[in-house]
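User: Show me a protein chain along with its predicted structure.
Assistant: Here is one chain, sequence first, then structure tokens.
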Amino acid sequence: MFTKKLIQPVVLAFLGFTLFSCDKDFNTIGVDIIDDNHFVFGTPDRDATVVAYNEDLPIVQTDNLTINPLGIYRNSTFGTQTANFVTQLVLPSSTPSFKIINEDPEITEVVLYIPYFSTAGTTTDGVTQYTLDSLYGTSKLKLSVFENGYFLRDLDPSNNFTQAQKYYSNQGNDFEIFKRGAAADGTSVAGGERLNNSTTTSENDAFYFNNTQITETSTDDEGTETTKKLVPGMYFTLNKEYFQKKIIGGYLDGKLSNANVFNDYFRGLYFKVEPSAEDPNGSSLAMINFRGGKITIKYKEDFEKITGNTSTVIRTNKTLDLTLGGYSASLVTQNRTTEYQNALQNASPTLGDERLFINGGAGSMAIIDLFGRDENGESAELENYRSKGWLINEANLTFRIDRDAMGDNKEPQRIYLYDINNKRPILDYVRDQTSSSKPKFAKRIHSGIIVKEDDKGIYYKIRLTNHISNLLRKDSTNVRLGLVVTEAISVVSNYSLKNPSASGLKEVPLASVLSPLGTVLYGSKSSVPLDKRLKLEIYYTKPD
């Protein structure tokens, strides 16, 4: 476990960088991808049996994600998603030490800053214009920041502390019940006032994701001002009286002596969103790298200045940074539309479904069976195909988007097909070594990238030539396939489901958990028109 805990920050940092790049591409590349058809020689076969059906994933693991949603996202197809967040705080690498000669240190200001994903534009008169990436909606929200009162463990006591503790999307009530705030004198109390208590409503009751460049000014002991430009982000003050008691008081009580003591004493921050009074039906959600954020505590403390034989105690300006790190969890609830909920409840593994609802986060996926496979992956149809001895030139699954169902909702730019049985990518993913300056669009031959017309998604095509060739010519196991949205095509690890799904799934790709978006695809059921129905297309050459 010691090794795992050391490796985890490195992995998170790498994934965070990758996801930032992916998310930036998501909004800046335009994604009107022209389908790069290859030269295909041979005869097309479209008669193979394909059964695709919906699978509900209502409660997913959400601890220590590289990026986290925050906000309220209203999607006319899938419903309303509310995403809160909780995180531990991390002390500096060296244990904080405050000097006390005549007086206790006095906190003068506490600033929370969490940069957003953004793209810089033009700079005029020293001011840079930014466009926010990974932002869905621009409404105002009510944002409250509380002290977290629910202890975030890093190890699971139910497994004798030998495995990492998992937290799930549906645990919001655990943190809501135990949230703490500030009393009138700043004392931490259950049910107290939120910590972002400024009279500036854009910091709480009318919060919005602001794309304005931030100017930060600091003054040293000599009165010299220094100005620094920051990229757009969540930037506001927190209750200084609360931090005076929590941090300075905690230091005097020995609560800042090491990370374990501090994490039990100050259990982190809980970010809670609600509809604002100004925009009660509004929609605004952003994907945020909370680990890039920090709390800067500005304070004055005693300093002994010696001039010759004279000693003078003066007050000097200091800062202490607490980073948003350690254990964290996304707390996501979804009020689903009736159509979406009914589609999941009435899924048909035997006949397949008319519509496939592929939704990230605590959402849903599709399961796909090829060649009429049974539970062991065998079928007479598959054996018949094998007997033909075909040379496979190319094989594709083309998923056509139900434009009426999707409406004007934001569309995921990519979907990901994987081997459910072995919880890994299929062979075509592995063998596709194509890269891109836009990480979201690597592995372009295997694809799964949205194809658009007039800025509307028309279809996704996934090439599985090697997968089908192995099935027909090398007697590989006909595994179940899973289809999910992906927030990062390079991320192929899996996260747990709290309970097994209807089909017995215990895990789901992490890249799907990271995404707040969804799409509706035409399925394989016989009632779907042929020109829209999901088909497996196999281009082959007959042997001489």
